[in-house]
Amino acid sequence: MATPAARELIRGHRIALRPATPADRERVWSWAVSEDNVRLLYPEGPPDLASFRTDYLAHYFDGSAPLQGRSYIIVRDGDDIGHINSNTIDVERGRTELDIWLARDALCGRGDGSAAVELLADHVCLRHDVVECWLQPSAHNPRAIRAYQKAGFRPLGLSLEEAEAEWGPADGRDACYMVRRQPARIRASTGDDLAFLGDMLYEAASWDPAGTRPPRGVALAMPELAKLLQDFGTRPGDTGLVAVDTGDRARRLGAAWFRLWSPEDHSYGFVDAETPEL
Predict the structure, then answer these.
(1) How many Å apart are CA 204 and CA 266, to the nearest integer?
(2) CA neighbours within 13 Å on the CB side: how many for 13?
(3) How confident is the model at residue 249 (pLDDT cuts 50, 70, 90)?
(4) Which residues pair with residue 184 across a beta bridge?
(5) Among 6, 36, 112, 197, which residue has the least CB neighbours within 10 Å?
(6) Residue 42 has pLDDT above 90, yes or no
(7) Going by C-beta distance under 8 Å and a sequence separation of 6 or more, which residues neighbour residue 177?
(8) Residue 242 CA to chain centroid, in angstroms?
(9) What's the pLDDT at 4?
(10) How many CB atoms lie within 10 A of CB 41?
């Protein structure tokens, strides 16, 4: 049986993010002020542990206020290789800043930093409805800039003064503001989305361009399809997500959902009563 810590892992293809604990705080600081990192992270001199604690308050490490900032340990092949965090989330605008550093320079260049920022950006989008994540690498750190570009972040192309006015104070005069914008918000489905889920089911069922495409009403009345959405949201286990355009129209773009079935009543993908069918 998975432990609580294992269930909280944010898992990616290459790396995972483990929620940091108070026991990680001093080690995270030691990584930040290491000889490999301090020149780029703290060009004006490294903070002592007390100053670091002032910047990274307890909630970063105990999870008590995730909207105010949360730290994670980057894990690869069972080894802790670095730290990444989200900062205060601007709920109204759907924005947050990310910070990242690896434990030592020898760990750079393998794609783990790119994977970590992409994984955390996706996580805060899903968990906290964030649509814009930003970073501030040094303009003199081309390796970091390339890594963030691989994760979908792009330089803003603004002057430092313009960037500070829009996004907040710079970490240094050579800060390069980079932003990744999510094309969609992900939210839980509601009863108002049932017709849209039907549209998506119709498209999924009509996946074969060489096949016959009956009218929507005819297709969704077929028993094997009708049962996939019948009374959706009223049965235990019914869970749906809808992707919504971040533009002014909030247009629905796509959906995913799952249901639980029984040995007596199930669809094509049935495994057992505890395994949802997506």
Answers:
(1) 18
(2) 5
(3) low
(4) 245
(5) 6
(6) no
(7) 134, 135, 136, 155, 156, 158, 163, 167, 170
(8) 16
(9) 45
(10) 21
